[in-house]
Write a structure and sequence with these properties.
heterodimer; A: alpha/beta; Rossmann fold; B: Mannitol-specific EII, Chain A; 6 helices
């Protein structure tokens, strides 16, 4: 069995938008047949939380802040946090690059 | 916690229009404040956070999941739903919003069951279009409860 992909969804407070986003991403990855484990956190915790994850998904407005945290992880930035079509379009190339698709 | 305990019928409202995004936040928090679920400072804290981070709660077209942190004045976890007939914009480059779902969360995870219901609605543009066109608060409440029973 392939390794389980660990994804962190991020928003300002780590309990609302990132939580909704987590569920949308979960749905997309299930559809793609990728085994994954997700969690959500606030943007201020990204630097410390990142070591437990393989990928970060966040809203576009946090791009500068997250890139500034230098996590070294692949990041996907979304215009619409709960748009499964946008999530699939943006996450697929990253998954391919990681050899998961 | 059952979805019916997280969203009370009296916390669902329909309003014709609102003049500013700050007042939209106050409007969206009012049912929770009146019900004793959040402190009066909750709305002000969300407004302050928005001024700092931008409207982090606008999820997609028509949808905002208005929320602060537990320490911003949450007393007891609960949702409220406010439907605006005329949309409001929270920043120049964000989407127009008609469906405001306000969340008072006590921690990062205990509202997971209710979030599943909401995520199911938020991910479904047809469902959002259906809800924003409803006529009465009771119909809006019923639509959320029906979505919960579909889970």
């Amino acid at each position: 069995m392939a390794k389980q992909l660990r994804i962190l969804t991020v928003c300002g407070n780590g309990l609302g938008s990132s939580f909704a986003c987590q569920m949308a991403v979960e749905g997309v990855l299930k559809g793609l047949g990728v085994d994954c484990k997700l969690d959500h956190d606030s943007v201020s915790s990204v630097a410390s939380a990142a070591r437990n994850f393989d990928m970060i998904v966040a809203a576009q407005n946090f791009q500068t802040q997250i890139e500034g945290a230098n996590t070294g992880l692949p990041c996907v930035f979304l215009k619409r946090l709960v748009d499964k079509k946008e999530i699939e379009e943006k996450i697929t190339p990253v998954l391919q690059e990681m050899g998961l698709l | 916690m059952q979805f019916s305990e997280m969203l009370k019928p009296e916390n669902v409202r329909i309003v014709q229009s609102i003049d500013t995004w700050q007042n939209a936040i106050r409007l969206a928090c009012a049912p929770l404040e009146e019900g004793g679920y959040v402190e009066p400072c909750y709305a002000d804290n969300i407004i302050a956070a928005t001024e700092k981070m931008g409207p982090y709660y606008v999820l997609t077209e028509d949808v905002a999941l208005v929320h602060g942190r537990p320490e911003d004045g949450v007393i007891k976890q609960q949702f409220a739903v406010t439907l605006l007939r005329e949309p409001i914009k929270f920043s120049e480059d964000s989407f127009e919003v008609r469906l405001l779902v306000t969340l008072a969360a006590q921690d990062a995870n205990s509202h997971i069951d209710a979030m599943r219901v909401l995520a199911g609605i938020f991910c479904d543009q047809d469902k959002i279009n259906e809800i924003v066109a409803l006529d009465t608060p009771q119909q809006v409440y019923d639509a959320f409860v029906a979505a919960a029973s579909e889970q």
